[in-house]
Amino acid sequence: MGEKCLPLSTKLILHLTLLFLFCHVCSKFASAAAFLPESEDDSLYINCGGEPVQTTNGSDYVGDNETKSFYVSSNNNWAYSCSGTFKSDTANSSDYVKNTSCGISNDIYVTARTCPVSLKYYGFCLHKGNYTVTLHFAEIVYSEKEDYSSLGERVFDVYIQDDKVLENFKPKAAAGSAKKEVICTFNASVKQDHTLRIHLYWAGKGSLFTPPATNGPLISAISVTREKRIELPSGPVSVRQIIDATSNFSTKMEIGRGGFGVVYKAELRGQVVAVKKLSSPSKQKLQEFNTEVHTLSSLKHENLVQLYGGYSGKELHLLIYEYMEHKSIAEALFETQSPLKLDWKTRREICLGIAKGLKYLHEESRLKIVHRDIKAQNILLGGTDENLKAKISDFGLAMLCEEGNENMVSRVAGTNGYLAPEYAMRGILSQKADIYSFGVLLLEIVSGRSNAVSRPTQETVYLLDTAYVYNKEGRLGDLVDKDLSSCYDVTEAMRILNLAMMCTSQTPTLRPTMSEVISVLQDEKTVEQVFGAPPTDSSSTTMAGAYLTSAAEISSTSTEVPSSAFTSYFMIKEKKEKKKNFTVNP
């Protein structure tokens, strides 16, 4: 018997059986693809009875305006079947789709699909997991006073995955009137067959003969989205649980703000985490979001903030981090109300921890990475009050950059006061840019001062300028935080200050590597052994003074120096470097 002679129901069974087999093949690849970002098979949007449409929230609904009793989409990811007969002598196939020209503003409610008795929708090749199924209804048939159809009442049942979720459902009554939308949301699980079934069924209730006699179920649109689960050390959590844990991102749960967005505190499965929410999903911010996800997901180090997972939907973008109870070193150093007081030992360990994190990024990780935004606000503190651990955070601006290579960037990003001059002025990016920022950060940690202080009617005071002038005058030790009083190791303080000056050299090639930085911080090498001795000729010392200030030269006085020329040992050494490399073409 040829296919054209088969009964309609048999055709449908054969077609759907082929699709089920197709999805069985899909399932073979599902586990391998589970770690990939969300694909199109994690969602389904259907504009029932209408043309393709994009809603105001950016969701793209596919068209569904066929008048056949069954239909399979062109990409085989969904289908519908319709059975039964309308109780009207004039009914025809066009009655399967309905539309209205007025009274409804939202495009997905302008049209609807109807069916006499049984209307089934199938979603195929969906990943296994939990889904949110949203059914959109608006009564656009029993709505007109002129033909008395407004007196009619539509009643039907709804099943999802064979479970009855709505009984004796009346769209018009649920919405309050005709041509008013009503949205019903349900949870459903997709199992091994990778198929979702939505069944609308008329059980003979409601109006039968009130014109126009199109009894049976009616639906305007369907949206199906996968409930993404994020794996935490304490177990998996859903996006809904995250929203609930932050009280729908309440300001009461807010613990920080930045250029990326807002950070909230949340407790999930007994574990406290930090939730970063993208505030304005511009193209640039979404790029930074994806950069942070991809960068941190491949990095594991004790001095990097751990990223547990992320979620990216059309309107919601989240990153879930380990929670750092003590916040950033910026708050500990610069905010007078901070309960955290950093003694010298803690500051020294913070410097070393940051250096180890940067060494991992630059030299040890599989991907060699330039952070591009090393600053006090991006160094978070974990651990106990007695044993704080510094961790680098916020990798939204990070870039791949092989050791020793320079990249030209079209958009300079970062924070003023921490930007290396060659990067800020010429867009030349290398790992040396991070080292420059690290040098500024060392000065802040030792001095307890912000790198730039703006005052009304006065010039901005830059910490680095102050350090250069102090160094020229032979009193670099005056930068040490007065809050430390005499409770610090003078030799260690001078070692770190001298190291900071080397890291902030105006010439990138004169800056150390992070391996060299760590060797100095751990007292394995002296600054002189790594960088060589300061100049000894009289002209140089007259101009710059002794660059490596000794511990005995620490002065008890302290002054602030406004923005000034960078006059130091570096300027002399840099001139020699340039003269040595300068050649004249014959």
Q: Could you characterize the architecture of this molecule?
A:
The protein is an alpha+beta fold. It has 3 domains: 3-227, Jelly Rolls; 230-322, Phosphorylase Kinase, domain 1, CATH 3.30.200.20; 329-576, Transferase(Phosphotransferase) domain 1 (Transferase(Phosphotransferase), domain 1, Orthogonal Bundle), CATH 1.10.510. Strands 2-3-1-15-9-12 form a 6-stranded mixed β-sheet. Strands 4-5-8-13-10-11 form a 6-stranded antiparallel β-sheet, with no helix packed on it. Helix 13 (538-544) crosses helix 14. It is a single-pass type I membrane protein. It is found in: Membrane. This is non-specific serine/threonine protein kinase.
How is this structure best summarized?
This protein has 586 residues and is α+β, with helices and mostly antiparallel strands. It is built from 14 helices and 30 strands. It has 3 domains: 3-227, Jelly Rolls, CATH 2.60.120.260; 230-322, Phosphorylase Kinase, domain 1, CATH 3.30.200; 329-576, Transferase(Phosphotransferase), domain 1 (Orthogonal Bundle).
Tell me the CATH topology of the largest domain: Transferase(Phosphotransferase), domain 1
Termini separation (Å)?
Answer: 93 Å
Over the alpha carbons, how many angstroms does the gyration radius reach?
34 Å
Kindly state the number of beta strands. Answer: 30
Oligomeric description of these chains: single chain
User: What portion of the residues fall into strands of 2 or more residues?
Assistant: 15-25%
The CATH homologous superfamily name of the largest domain equals: Transferase(Phosphotransferase) domain 1
Largest sheet: 6 strands, mixed
Total count of domains: 3
The overall average pLDDT, rounded, is: 80
Low-pLDDT windows of residues: 1-8, 24-40, 534-586
Helix-strand makeup class: alpha+beta
Strand order of the largest sheet: 2-3-1-15-9-12
CATH C-level class of the largest domain: Mainly Alpha
What overall form do the CA principal axes indicate?
Answer: elongated
